[in-house]
Specification:
Largest sheet of chain B: 2 strands, antiparallel
CATH architecture of chain B: Orthogonal Bundle
Radius of gyration of chain B: 32 Å
Strand order of the largest sheet of chain B: 1-2
Structural class of chain A: mainly alpha
Largest sheet of chain A: none
Structural class of chain B: mainly alpha
Helix content of chain A: over 70%
Number of helices of chain B: 16
Oligomer: heterodimer
Order of helices and strands of chain A: HH
CATH class of chain B: Mainly Alpha
Number of helices of chain A: 2
Radius of gyration of chain A: 15 Å
Helix content of chain B: 55-70%
Strand content of chain B: under 5%
Number of strands of chain A: 0
Distance between the termini of chain B: 143 Å
């Protein structure tokens, strides 16, 4: 599969999720509310990215 | 008779008086051995600056072509203008100057290491075919950004969050949280936890920033090794995700164990194995981790189309530009003067003056590494192969990275020479026996010779270095088997076992997951076409005419000359 726009989208959400998840864990003790939101959002974005990548994984593979 | 009696009496009195005077005089003479005790000047007492004879404004106004009037007592900051210059001011300036020297040294050497990315980019791109030039260059370009970001988010905290004070950099006290577990009654450091986003737990600190920059460029060096071995068939999105993971988790974990106060570094203090795992500048931490991860990724994505025949014999797939390969090697050799001498983390204090020895060891090992490779190739294949000679230089530099701070020049020459031959043997071994396709020889240069460098510390460390009187919490200097400490070799071998056992398995599983989710390899059509257009949208050399595949090899020529 050649590069397609969805890959850029899912790479972007991966980066945001990867940032939000540890940030949430970090502020969990000082700002519990914000910490929970960031942690869950980060995990959700990472999961969304993984599912997205998986769904487009084999586009264009005709002869492998 | 009376007169004689008077004279005798007078004589006796005179003798007694003289004797008494002598005793008193002796008693009053100060002992020459008695020290003269002087009261120390008060720290806040004004100093007599006239004694320093600072240049006058009139003198300075004439200019200072000889540099004899610049940098004097006039340049010392005064904390209280009413008191004027005090002893405390002078001593604080001395301390700050030491740290300033070390900051400057560490930062500039870090900048040199950062420039090694350019060297890696040229070497890897030159050793790949022209149809993949843009893709290979872009992987080397973006690995810097992906790795840096991941390291800032969490990699640095995992690696250095519990490293403890670094005296050369003024303390770095906030890096004080190492998670440990206890085995056999001894603490085993696993990972640090101060320094997430460089803004947590006091890590917004000048010393921490310096060590972050220096460690970050090391981490990026490890990451860029993988892009070479996986070149010409690695899907760009998968490369991005894999690099983020390696910069965030894989590299920081092993680096913590070796450099961040982790369990490998404590093998000496806890179990009496030499000075614990000793890796001065990262043959193991940087190069072997990169090379072993490169092996794992290369095994997962498989060889390039056309690399192996049906009978398993390999085909040569030469790179497209040996000129930029050798130019890249020179850039890397230059950058290595940041890599190894910079690992003293300073040029002042705690044995940091050994930077000269470290730099010379680095030069010599690179030199003999290229000797080893060129002579081996010349004898075996009849020609002094350019790409393998370049790899020999790099192999020597990789191998000397761990021992550069602990060995003498004889040791460095031997280590480099062995590395130069070893890289040639290793390339043939992986190509023909293991059948792992590695377009640039990264597994052999960095993985195999990184391991050789780690082992060589346990053999050649001469016990003459002195970095503040101890290493890894064990007093004295690192000493290898040939200089009387077999325990050091055992510690190094435990490090090698960890690299091969843990790092390989961890990297393999992580990249297997990425393969399942994202897919590591491009399609066969894209690979045959070349990855520049399908993956990057533009050719690296748009004015070239690329010949069609012939035996798996695409050659390039100028349109006008073809």
């Amino acid at each position: 599969m050649a590069s397609i726009p969805q890959q850029g989208t899912y790479l972007g959400t991966t980066l945001i999720g990867f940032t939000a998840f540890p940030a949430g864990l970090l502020v969990l003790s000082s700002h519990p509310g914000l910490g929970v939101v960031l942690t869950i959002a980060g995990l959700a974005l990472l999961a969304y990215s993984a599912v997205g990548f998986y769904r487009i994984k084999n586009i264009g593979f005709s002869n492998r | 008779m009376r007169d004689r009696l008077l004279i005798r009496s007078a004589a006796c009195i005179a003798v007694v008086l003289l004797f008494s005077f002598g005793l008193c005089a002796w008693a009053q003479t100060p002992s020459p051995a008695a020290p003269v005790v002087q009261a120390a000047p008060a720290m806040d007492a004004p100093l007599n600056v006239q004694a320093a004879q600072p240049p006058s404004t009139a003198d300075l106004a004439k200019g200072d072509p000889g540099g004899t009037m610049t940098g004097t007592i006039n340049d010392i900051s005064v904390s209280d203008s009413k008191k004027g210059l005090t002893l405390a001011d002078a001593l604080n300036q001395v301390g700050q100057n030491k740290i300033a020297i070390n900051f400057t040294w560490t930062l500039i050497t870090g900048f040199l290491v950062m420039f090694m990315q350019a060297g890696f980019a040229l070497v890897e791109t030159g050793l790949c075919r022209a149809k993949n030039a843009n893709h290979t260059m872009m992987m080397n370009f973006m690995v810097y950004s992906f790795g840096l970001f991941a390291y800032w988010v969490c990699g640095f905290a995992i690696q250095m969050g519990g490293a403890g004070p670094i005296a050369n950099l003024g303390g770095t006290i906030p890096l004080s949280a190492e998670h440990v577990f206890t085995v056999l009654g001894k603490p085993w450091g696993l990972f640090g936890s101060h320094g997430f986003f460089l803004s947590q737990a006091g890590t917004y600190d000048v010393g921490v920033m310096v060590i972050f920059l220096f460690q970050m460029v090391f981490m990026d060096t490890a990451l860029t090794i993988v892009t070479g071995s996986a070149a010409e068939r690695w899907k760009f999105a998968a490369f991005a995700v894999s690099s983020i993971f390696m910069g965030a988790i894989t590299y920081p974990l092993f680096a913590n164990w070796a450099w961040g106060g982790g369990w490998l570094s404590q093998l000496g203090a806890n179990f009496g194995l030499g000075h614990g795992y000793a890796d001065f500048a990262g043959s193991g931490v940087v190069h072997a981790v990169g090379g072993i991860t490169a092996l794992a990724v290369s095994m997962i994505i498989g060889p390039r189309i056309g690399k192996y025949n049906r009978d398993g014999s390999p085909n040569a797939m030469p790179g497209h530009d040996i000129v930029i390969v050798l130019a890249g090697c020179f850039i890397l050799a230059f950058g290595w003067f940041g890599f190894n001498p910079g690992s003293t983390l300073g040029a002042s204090g705690n044995g940091a003056l050994r930077i000269g020895s470290v730099a010379v060891n680095t030069m010599l090992a690179g030199c003999t590494g290229s000797f080893g490779a060129i002579i081996y190739m010349w004898i075996r294949y009849g020609k002094p192969d350019a790409s393998m000679t370049g790899n020999g230089l790099l192999a020597g530099l990789v191998a000397i990275t761990a021992p550069s701070g602990f060995v003498n020049t004889i040791g460095s020459v031997i280590i480099g020479l062995i590395a130069g031959v070893l890289v040639c043997l290793s390339v043939e071994f992986f190509d023909r026996v293991v059948r792992v396709d590695d377009p640039v020889g990264a597994i052999s240069v960095h993985g195999v010779n990184g391991i050789w460098g780690v082992i060589s510390v346990g053999l050649f460390a001469d016990g003459r270095s002195n970095y503040g009187g101890s290493w890894n919490g064990v007093s004295g200097s690192v000493r290898g088997l040939f200089y009387g400490d077999p325990g050091q070799l055992v510690a190094q071998l435990i490090g090698v076992a960890t690299l091969v056992g843990f790092v390989f398995a961890f990297s393999y599983i992580a990249n297997l997951v990425i393969d399942v989710v994202v897919g590591q390899r491009v399609s066969a059509e894209d690979e045959l076409e070349g990855l520049d257009i399908p993956e990057m949208g533009a050719l690296g050399y748009p004015e070239f005419v690329l010949k069609p595949e012939a035996h798996g090899v695409a050659s390039a020529s100028y349109a006008s000359g073809d």
